[in-house]
Amino acid sequence: MKKIFLIIISLVLFFSLAHRSYAAPTPPLDLLSDLLKILFSFQSAPDLPTPPAITPIISPDTTPPLSDINQYFPKPLNPLSPNLTAYDRNDVLTCLNKKTVYELASGYTGMPWQILAAIHYLEASCGEGSLVSGRAIGTCEPDLANECSTGRSGPGIPIPLPGGCCGMASLSDSAIYAGKHLQGKIGKNPVNFQDLVIAFDRYNGLGNQNCGVTPYKSCPRYFESEDHIYPLNWFDTPRHNTMYLVYCADHVKCNPPKIFARPGALTVLRILSGN
Amino acid sequence: MEEQLERKKMIIFISISFVILFGLVIILKSLQKSSQPQTQLPTPTIINYPSPTRVELPRTSPPKKDLPVPQSINNAPTYPPDKGQGIDIESEFIQSATNEVQKLYPYLPYLVDYQLSTGLTASIVIPAQDLQENPWSLTVQIFGIDYQVPADSQDYQLMKDSFREAANVVFEWMNSYGVDPQKLIVRWGDKALIKERAEEWLQ
Fold this sequence. Notes:
A: two-stranded antiparallel ribbon, B: 3-stranded antiparallel β-sheet
């Protein structure tokens, strides 16, 4: 009798110690249930691929403050596409590290900082690259050729670089430039969802509109640019779940069109504004 | 006899301990379920996306003569390296272009959609002075054209004709304010490929 009792106790202790040695500390309730799961495991291991490990500098739990950014979303707002992974969300939230840069540029342009962050995410993953093209700050920007002069300087104005080309002096300058540039696409500050979608589409170039040239299913589009990957990929489900990259390089169409696997600018906006 | 009683006790003990263990598992599982947040996804609803504005767009026709070709920024003089490089804003070429652009500032922004004879709709956006990229050129954007279209594509001629027709609208608008397009430097877009294509199609 005593022997059996001792065997049961030692088994429980063994599994408990084994679990403690290999697992991260968990609350007591989880530990117990995990132990029981080990003893009476009816569940199979999840077969979903684990996303690559990244260390978000800002905690994903951080909810940025809500601002008037809500004016840019349709109502009601459907859930984000299920294709958007936790990895993508965390990746977008790293943009919060440069919030002060975007806020500074927002002061010069009147564009909400989240919109500038969205451009930076699409162009340079909110890294050190410029908002113009993602190229390193201080290097030649081909799109800014002949846009600079020694006799002209100021916030957001391109500067001449050695070799005669033009580029940006700082990340904040590129953010100011991008903000004004986005406004220039529609000739005004965007005030609603439709304005912003069109402005983002034109910022990227109209070539990546999906209807008529890809297997995208949500056609016809509701308005100009509503079928473009740059503003709306993964924005909501089911309408923008699967969208396609049309041009793989300048003047070169993807054959066949490739599924675009990055969040669109308004999707980034939703994540950054907690929507 | 005593041994049999001992065995019975042992069997009863083992069965009871199993029952307790299973009971614990069930209780813990139900506790865990109730402590978990509800992760039920909301069902998609129909969104009130803005509906397209149905307006009768002004119609255009193909240009009847050769188009006036604005000056190319590629011909603009630049400062030498010892003066800092970039566009020479003191040069006659740039000064003259700047003066022409300034004549149009009071009439900006110009934001009009056109129904082209090619079947495409073109949105012309010429931003106001504060959103112009620089003082020596006029940013004129014609949207609705695929500037990336490969030269061997069946749509190439359609895009080229559409661009020329829309550009002609812009030139006529400039003329109406006494500005000669050939004295201006027009910046046809932001991307290098758009600028190159536009200049190529105007030749």
